[in-house]
Design a protein that fits this description.
Blueprint lengths: L8 H8 L2 H22 L4 H18 L14 E4 L5 H10 L40 H15 L5 E6 L6 H12 L5 E7 L2 E2 L2 E2 H4 L5 H7 L3 E6 L3 H7 L9 E6 L22 H12 L1
Parallel strand pairs: 1-2, 2-3, 3-7, 6-7
Antiparallel strand pairs: 4-5
Helix pairs in contact: 2-3, 2-4, 2-10, 3-4, 5-6
Length: about 280
């Protein structure tokens, strides 16, 4: 298992200047998300909050994407394989200018483009429809193969839930990525250790997870998924000529004390009073 690559001090200093803006983006994503889910009376707030720092880092400082030209052929590709956390993605896209902030008020409403799972034909910035777990990673591998065939420098990132790794299609995709030497592919595991109804290790044991990824031919980077500096390091390109797997150790419901590491917040909807408490904590 490798550690994230070491950057020159000048490069690290310049990049670290982005961290306050990334942190503020993540905070805004969570603030919008909690209100959005309360308004819609559905959603997956626990997983939204565990992945928010990952999304904010990617969209705030890593991805080569332009909200004014979301279909640019040479854009980087991002796939949210854990599609049930669409709320976090929509909130990120809105705060980054892909969709109007006002659109968040329509989340999960009749005829809204913002469905409970992302739809690429309706939402700018969404690369593929996801919902059934185990589908997004194979699509991301396809994106990366396409880039390699075209000789393109574009990169592909995909976020998977840790419970999602119980789906065998992910490991078929991992074998394919290694076989074809997809060095511009980064798979990110949102390792919050909780899934619907139970802890992942109680449902189906994943550990030793880093060893599993390494055995499939990936360069593995095991990090704190809420530390922006570690995230930025981990999202650097491959240093070994292999695809990269980032195990981002996160906390479900991160940022709101009464939600953190609580299995019921997988898809529990906050009350109006809980929304106020959450906003107070996120604004402190």
């Amino acid at each position: 298992m490798s550690t994230p690559p070491h950057l020159a001090e000048t490069d690290r200093s310049l990049r670290d200047q982005a961290i306050p803006a990334i942190a503020e983006l993540a905070r805004q994503v969570r603030l919008s998300d909690v209100q959005m889910i309360n308004r819609a009376q559905l959603g997956h707030i626990g997983g939204d909050f565990s992945v928010a720092d990952i999304l904010a880092t990617l969209y705030g400082a890593v991805l080569n994407v332009d909200p004014k030209d979301p279909t640019d052929p040479e854009r980087d590709r991002f796939v949210l394989s854990k599609g049930h956390c669409a709320g976090a993605l929509y909130s990120t896209l809105a705060h980054c200018g892909f969709i109007p902030l006002s659109a968040l008020e329509t989340f999960a409403q009749p005829l809204s483009a913002l469905n409970g799972h992302p739809n690429r034909t309706k939402v700018p910035g969404v690369e593929t429809n996801t919902g059934p777990l185990g589908h997004g990673f194979p699509v991301a591998v396809g994106h990366a193969i396409g880039a390699k065939l075209q000789g393109s420098p574009r990169r592909t990132f995909v976020v998977l839930g840790d419970g999602e790794l119980q789906e065998g299609s992910n490991w078929e995709a991992a074998m394919t990525a290694s076989h074809y030497g997809l060095t511009k592919l980064t798979a990110i595991v949102d390792r919050n250790r909780l899934q619907q109804g139970a802890r992942t290790e109680e449902t189906k044991q994943l550990e030793p997870l880093a060893d599993k990824w390494a055995s499939f031919g990936f360069e593995v980077r095991d990090i704190d998924g809420h530390d922006y500096r570690q995230l930025l390091d981990a999202f650097e390109p491959s240093t070994t000529g292999r695809p990269v797997a980032v195990i981002a150790n996160t906390i479900k419901g991160k940022g709101v004390s009464f939600m953190e590491d609580r299995v019921e917040w997988h898809h529990k909807v906050p009350t109006a009073e809980q929304v106020e408490l959450a906003i107070e904590e996120l604004s402190a």
